[in-house]
Amino acid sequence: xxxxxxxxxxxxxxxxxxxxxxxxxxxxxxxxxxxxxxxxxxxxxxxxxxxxxxxxxxxxxxxxxxxxxxxxxxxxxxxxxxxxxxxxxxxxxxxxxxxxxxxxxxxxxxxxxxxxxxxxxxxxxxxxxxxxxxxxxxxxxxxxxxxxxxxxxxxxxxxxxxxxxxxxxxxxxxxxxxxxxxxxxxxxxxxxxxxxxxxxxxx
Amino acid sequence: xxxxxxxxxxxxxxxxxxxxxxxxxxxxxxxxxxxxxxxxxxxxxxxxxxxxxxxxxxxxxxxxxxxxxxxxxxxxxxxxxxxxxxxxxxxxxxxxxxxxxxxxxxxxxxxxxxxxxxxxxxxxxxxxxxxxxxxxxxxxxxxxxxxxxxxxxxxxxxxxxxxxxxxxxxxxxxxxxxxxxxxxxxxxxxxxxxxxxxxxxxxxxxxxxxxxxxxxxxxxxxxxxxxxxxxxxxxxxxxxxxxxxxxxxxxxxxxxxxxxxxxxxxxxxxxxxxxxxxxxxxxxxxxxxxxxxxxxxxxxxxxxxxxxxxxxxxxxxxxxxxxxxxxxxxxxxxxxxxxxxxxxxxxxxxxxxxxxxxxxxxxxxxxxxxxxxxxxxxxxxxx
Lengths: 203, 383
Prior knowledge:
The structure holds two protein chains of two kinds.
Chain A: H1 2-15, E1 19-20, E2 24-26, E3 30-31, E4 34-41, E5 44-51, E6 58-59, E7 65-66, E8 84-86, E9 96-109, E10 116-125, E11 133-138, E12 149-150, E13 159-166, E14 171-179, E15 195-201
Chain B: H1 2-7, H2 15-18, H3 30-52, E1 54-58, E2 66-68, E3 71-74, E4 78-80, E5 92-94, E6 101-113, E7 120-129, E8 137-142, E9 155-156, E10 165-174, E11 177-188, E12 198-210, E13 216-230, E14 232-239, E15 245-247, E16 253-260, E17 272-276, E18 279-293, E19 299-308, E20 316-321, E21 329-330, E22 339-346, E23 351-360, E24 370-381
Parallel strand pairs in B: 3-13, 4-13
Antiparallel strand pairs in B: 1-6, 2-3, 5-6, 6-11, 7-10, 7-12, 8-9, 8-11, 12-13, 14-18, 15-16, 17-18, 18-23, 19-22, 19-24, 20-21, 20-23
């Protein structure tokens, strides 16, 4: 009897010789290998500048973006290449301002501490002819020339461009060039440029 | 001569007496000749079988050779056209260099005995009874004194007794020598109408030949009974043009997306980023490599599901697509309802899949930074 049982068990074992492995199987019609997917999620921030309704924001050379105001003058006589111009309050005495709108889009991800961000800006490289040219800005559509104020030229005390900014939502801001009246030795005509650095921070 | 013979007759007994009562009365002189002739014939009869030599097949480090001279038996057991699974004891599988299947190999010993001194013998073999499915099963041979580790070492075993395959080549082996040769069993990976599964048998006839005169020393047979062809499946994964697929730890394969974020900034090499609602999808191509053997169907299905999800499944999700740029759909997380990748996977043909990793750009309490992992289970099924 024991012998018969042993034979039966042996026979059953032989009949059920399915060999399973991760990637292969014999005497079977299915095989199921596995693959582990590894990933490391990092938090991220992104600040994008795009064209508003006026001057074009394009990719910069040596900077991320660039905007060009074209020909300007302290009397506001030159027709803006793009954007708008405020003529001086007192021509020949007070400056004129050429400005344009643009868009800022803050985006951030994986920021467990906050759901909003702040954007600041400062003039990291000022015009060479600072007696004539200065960067001005406004966080809302300027209603007068005085609405456009000088942008900070100090990284330690940047100008606030926006607070509690929503993730992925574009905001419209205004940036311009103030052209002051200078004649004589301080007078300047020609091309010049400045660089503004924007900073998005999520708490 | 007769005198000498008579002189050896003790007591000079008559020839009749000497032959213990034989009625034959030979002539004087012929008696001794017949005596010696008889002794010679008897001696030849006694010595002749040994002088021809005996070939014995014996178990070496391979399969068990059973039976007895001149009918031996053996079996390589369960085999398949992919060479997957564990072969029988003493059996190895060669896959490299073999076209259309694999070669199962096993060593065996040929022992020559009974050869007269100074003689040697060669051995040839042929398939005297072939498998009923010769397109699926085919016997190969690797001669003695050969490194029988590659397919090129083996030759197709002849099925013609007139042109047998050499197993022990000239100058042959001497008396009482044991030599190891290898037997090969090619198993085709055929699918479709001509596929075969089940037991099949064949017989090999070995012929030992004396080198000195070309006479046949011995002929023995080896019956290979119940070589059982099984179907088999295999599913491998390989790197396509995207992320590298490596051997896994605890899984069969592994893929690492590296550092990712919900904005898709600075994607690692090999990844394509697509912005979608709520985040981005990092995508990569990869290869699924299905192979199967001895199925009547020539196509199978490839499915996948997330068998172990990310711990942070609100931030991370595995997607599939038919193109690197999407559109992407979430891969099933249920074994019972797996995501179909293709229903027409052909054996030996790479299937290009696109795996997407959705990363949410959520902030606040639902945000997550750090390492995470998930496991995908792919399934090849051949009907």
